[in-house]
Amino acid sequence: MTETGTAPRVALVTGATRGIGAAISRQLAALGLTVVLGARDRAAAEHVAAALGRARAVPVQLDVTDAASVSRCQRLIAAEVGSVDVLVNNAGVLLDDEVPMLAVGEDILEATLQVNLVGVWRMVRALVPAMVERGYGRVVNLSSSLASLAPPETGSPAYSVSKAALNMLTAQLALELRGTGVLVNCLDPGWVRTDMGGPTAPRSPEEGADTAVFLATLDDDGPTGGFFRDRERVAW
Ligand SMILES: NC(=O)c1ccc[n+]([C@@H]2O[C@H](COP(=O)([O-])OP(=O)(O)OC[C@H]3O[C@@H](n4cnc5c(N)ncnc54)[C@H](OP(=O)(O)O)[C@@H]3O)[C@@H](O)[C@H]2O)c1
After folding, report:
1. Is 136 a catalytic residue?
2. Which of 17, 104, 119, 194 has a beta carbon 3.0–4.6 Å from 64's, enabling a disulfide?
3. What pTM was computed for the model?
4. How many Cβ atoms are within 10 Å of 225's Cβ, its own excluded?
5. Average pLDDT for 141-166
6. Helix (H) / strand (E) containing 36
7. Where do the domains of the chain lie?
8. Closest ligand 1 atom, residue 19 Cα
9. Is 61 in the pocket of ligand 1 (CB under 6 A)?
10. Radius of gyration (C-alpha) of the chain in whole angstroms
11. List of residues 6+ apart from 117 with CB closer than 8 A
């Protein structure tokens, strides 16, 4: 229970065992939320849950490209924590770093869209209807500067297309959910030192997590339908 006697909010983070997702999970737990740690490898999620110490953390096997895995995750949530108030769609893949568009194979395109776009849509369908019913929810989508059309950058075409589509998913969902108590936003975490970002990136995972945590814990009168960087709304 919190100081006010209410149950702590519950957040589900996808891809919670490394990189920015692990940092988001640590920061949400430090703020007192119960964190459901989604990971393809359940043992890895259990390891992160143990490292969170006294904070309430619930490990769950979750592959966002696998509808059966998402259904099992829904059942575990119902059994262990009841419902989810905050969905952080962090899981992502970058499979075409520095590959010219005409050299990107259909398998790479398909795999990228399955995680970065279809997987997010699947998680939204699984968890957001209950948020609408309860009149409270926060959906946070990890996008990228490479999603931006203002102006676009070259370098990772399938990844960029997937994240631009994720931005539109964010805008569409936010519009549909206006007035329901569910706020939906996306963010660019900056260039972050993770397996994806590489060792020379300027930001730590904790710095990369900051805006996601800010959006995950917005007050009820907070923004919806925005693209954020460093806690500020930026151009799409
Ligand atoms: N790092 C950057 O500079 C940067 C910049 C802009 C945006 N972003 C975005 O920030 C997010 C996190 O990036 P990161 O740098 O932390 O990446 P990362 O270190 O490569 O970690 C990616 C995470 O996604 C998970 N994942 C991949 N496929 C999955 C699937 N099918 N189902 C569930 N989880 C899956 C991975 O799980 P496994 O451990 O099971 O593989 C891992 O936990 C991504 O959406 C990324 O696009 C990162």
Report:
1. no
2. 119
3. 0.97
4. 18
5. 95
6. strand 34-39
7. 10-233
8. 16
9. no
10. 17
11. 162, 165, 166, 169
pLDDT per residue as tens digits for the range 38-80: 999 999 999 999 999 767 899 999 999 999 999 999 999 999 9
Mutate to test the pocket of ligand 1, among 35, 66, 194, 207 (most ligand atoms within 8 A of CB): 194
Q: Closest residue (by CA) to atom 46 of ligand 1?
A: 92
C-alpha atoms less than 13 angstroms from C-alpha of 90 in its C-beta half-sphere? 36
| pLDDT at residue 70, rounded to an integer | 98
Half-sphere exposure of residue 94, counting CA atoms within 13 Å on the CB side?
17
Q: Which residues of 43-80 are buried (b: 16+ CB within 10 A; e: fewer)?
A: ebbbebbeebeebebbbbbbbbbbeebbeebbebbeee
Average pLDDT, the chain: 96
Strands (DSSP E) contained in 91-198 are 137-142, 182-187
Q: What is the pLDDT of residue 147?
A: 97
- Assign 58 to helix, strand or coil: strand
Q: Give yes or no for residue 160 CB within 6 A of ligand 1.
A: no
| Domain formed by 10-233, architecture | 3-Layer(aba) Sandwich (3.40)
Identified catalytic residue from 85, 159, 194, 211: 159
Q: Is 21 in the pocket of ligand 1 (CB under 6 A)?
A: yes
| CA–CA distances in Å: residue 111 to residues 25, 53, 141, 152 | 25, 35, 18, 22
Could you tell me which of 176, 159, 163, 53 has the C-alpha nearest to residue 124?
A: 176
